[in-house]
Structure formats: C-alpha cells, structure tokens
Design goal:
The chain is an alpha/beta fold. 26% of the residues lie in helices and 24% in strands. It has helices spanning 22-38, 54-60, 79-93, 104-117, 228-237, 246-250, 281-284, 316-330, and strands spanning 9-12, 15-16, 19-20, 42-48, 65-70, 97-101, 120-125, 127-130, 136-142, 147-151, 159-163, 180-183, 214-218, 241-244, 271-275, 292-297, 310-313. The strands form four sheets. A seven-stranded parallel sheet has the order 7-11-6-1-4-5-12, sandwiched between helices. A five-stranded parallel sheet has the order 14-13-15-16-17. The structure holds flavin-adenine dinucleotide (FAD).
Length: 334
C-alpha cells in the first residue's frame, strides 16, 4: 500500500433521524487539533436519506468539506449498506485518517469497513494525537484497563479509530465558516438479509447520566442498598443525578445506564462527588474530565484523592447526613 496517496482527516458524521449526534461534533473538535499538527483538511462523511442541512452544522463545527451520500437504503442504519457506501467513498478519496464515535453504530460499522479496506482499527480510544508526518497516535486502556497504551497503524491507510463519546468537547459553533460540499451518488443495494421492523427509543429514567452536570456517585463503600437513599437525597437537593461504580451494577443495585467508567458511561459534569469509591483506573477514565471532583473516602491513601480537587477522609454514613442537613438549613441551591 502506498500510504503517500492517502491524505485528509475524515470523521463519520453519525446522525439519527436527521439529527447529528453530539459525538460527531466532538470528533470534529479533535480533528481540528490534529489538523493544526499535520495540516490535513477535515472531511465529514454524512450518510443517510434526506439529511440536507446537516452539512452546514458540520462546517460550522470545524469540517472543511462534507461528502454526502443520500439514498433510500440509508434511511435507517443497517451495517451492510452503510459499510458499502463508506467503503466506496473512502476508496475514491483515500483519507489518511477515519474517525468514528465508539457508539453502538460506530462500533458496529468501523470493523466492517476496516476489514473491507484491509487496514487497522483501534477501538474505544480515549485520546488521539498526531506526529508531524501524519501518523495517528491512538491512546486507549489496555490489559483490563490497567495501563494506557498508544497504538499506531504505520503501514496501512486509512488509520481508523473509534473514540469514546464525551472525551472531547465540541468547538463553539461558527456559523460564518464556509466549506466544500460534495454530493456523491452511489449505487447501493438493500440488504435483504436483515430488516428493521421498528425503532423503539430506549426507555430511560430521565436525563441520561452522560449529560448530567452534577453527579453524586456511589461505590462499593456504600454498605447497603438502602443507603443509596442518602445519595439520592443529596443529588436531588443539588439538582444532580446518582451514578455508580461497577460493583454496584454487578450487585444489581443500579442499572448499567448509571455506571461510570471504562465499561460504562463517560461523564463530563461540572461537579462530581465520589462516595466510597477507591479510584480504580477503569472508573477514573470515565469521569476524570469533570470540572470539579470531590471525594469522600475513609481511606486517606485511596487513589481517587489523587485526581480530586477536594476530599474528605471520612465515613460517609456520618458526613453525608451532615452535608444534607447543612444544605437544608441554608436552603442552598446549585
Ligand atoms: C475490563 C474492566 C472494566 C471495568 N470497567 C469498570 C467501569 O466501567 N467502572 C467501574 O467503576 N469499574 C470498572 N471495573 C472495575 C474496577 O477495576 C474496580 O474494581 C471498581 O471500579 C471498584 O469500584 P469501587 O471503587 O466502588 O470499589 P472498591 O475498590 O472496593 O472501593 C471502595 C472504597 O470505599 C471506601 N469506603 C469503604 N467504606 C467507606 C465508608 N463508610 N465511608 C467512606 N468510604 C468508604 C474504601 O476505602 C474504598 O476506597 C472494570 C474492571 C475491568 C477489569
């Protein structure tokens, strides 16, 4: 493979029912950073049916160019037609980098494209950087999350990565930005082996944890399920949500949608209070981008203190009721 023929940073502009998901904008922000190093143009690949209008959004968030493939078989996501469309366009334009969100769709689509193109893919990255000559450095947890490793794909193109939602922040929208828009018309066949019968929105208990601005998170230090009520009460008082480390999901106390960490959600709240959580790397990778991190743990040597802006070495069974009472007394609002 002559890798010198491959140029440009591409992102997969994932949309659902004509609405871009935020991860697409997060990828664009990272692509802008990579462009500053390698100088390569940024292209958003937009697949769907009747997605016109989204190209302006993509350009205003950092894309230099948008390639749009509209076709009836792309109306609802299906692996084969989406992979067919992406592979045809990639083979034509030969990007050097192709980034997708590590969403359900991105995780399904990326390996299919990778295998068809005979290239490499790093799944579930937490960071990306680039060497001057265009080699993408892809950082992800390895060995059960105990170390972070950097992976490169030196001999093949495009260099493909899926990137966890919420690890980058979208840029501020610049509606005056101008970009190039290309409509590609491609022959695509319906995949008759699978049929989408209906799309049912995921049932949710309210605002999802990855969008919460305030989180009270509990871990294995919480002695009993009934004591989660303390965390719920505090979260309600400060307008937040309860999240948990994995052991409490394994115990069946909370749902996976509330789990923070490598195998749960990545969160980026303004404020997170960790209660009875030791700070295993698999937890930390899911919340370390929080603006303000507070911790209550009775072990002064707990690793979680290393990333906390504020900490109390205390037993939560004593401290949480005192905090709740104080907030009630002062009638504080967040
Ligand atoms: C592949 C893989 C993926 C994983 N993914 C995740 C993930 O997504 N999210 C995740 O959380 N974990 C994940 N884990 C598990 C992770 O390694 C840890 O086991 C887990 O995070 C530990 O949770 P914890 O901190 O709540 O519990 P512990 O490590 O048991 O810590 C409990 C803490 O509570 C404190 N404590 C106890 N009693 C009190 C008290 N009365 N008051 C105050 N503090 C008290 C203790 O001092 C201790 O620090 C994963 C593991 C693997 C191998």
């Amino acid at each position: 493979m002559d890798i010198s023929l491959y140029k440009g940073i591409w992102i997969f502009a994932e949309q659902k029912e004509g609405v871009l998901i935020e991860t697409s904008l997060e990828l664009l922000a990272k692509a802008v950073e990579l462009k500053r190093i390698g100088g390569e143009e940024i292209t958003a690949l937009l697949l769907g049916e009747a997605v016109a209008g989204l190209e302006d959004v993509l350009i205003s968030y950092g894309a230099d160019q948008v390639i749009i493939v509209e076709h009836p078989v792309l109306k609802t996501y299906k692996t084969i037609p989406y992979a067919d469309a992406a592979v045809k366009v990639i083979n034509k334009y030969k990007p050097s980098v192709f980034l997708l969100g590590a969403t359900a769709i991105g995780r399904d689509l990326a390996p299919r494209i990778m295998a068809r193109l005979g290239t490499g893919l790093t799944a579930d990255c937490l960071d990306l950087s680039m060497e001057k000559e265009g080699t993408l450095i892809q950082t992800k947890p390895s060995y059960g999350g105990n170390i972070m490793c950097s992976i490169t794909i030196p001999m093949h193109r495009p260099q493909m990565s899926t990137v966890r939602p919420k690890v980058f922040s979208p840029m501020i929208e610049e509606t005056h930005r101008k970009g190039n828009i290309i409509h590609e018309s491609i022959d695509l066949a319906e995949d008759n082996r699978t049929q989408v019968m209906s799309v049912i929105p995921k049932a949710s208990s309210g605002q999802s944890i990855d969008k919460a601005e305030v989180i009270v998170a509990g871990g294995r230090g919480i002695k009993d399920k009934t004591e989660m009520a303390l965390l719920e009460e505090l979260a309600e008082l400060i307008g937040g949500r309860v999240g948990v480390s994995r052991p409490l999901v394994d115990e069946g106390w909370m749902n996976h949608e509330e789990q923070i960490g490598q195998s749960g959600n990545t969160v980026k709240p303004k404020f997170i209070l960790n209660v009875g959580i030791s700070g295993a790397v698999q937890y930390i990778v899911g919340m370390q981008k929080a603006e303000c991190i507070l911790t209550i743990n009775k072990n002064p040597a707990a690793d979680i203190f290393d990333i906390s802006g504020f900490g109390a070495v205390a037993d939560y069974t004593e401290l949480l009721p005192a905090i709740i009472a104080e907030i009630k007394n002062r009638k504080l609002g967040f």
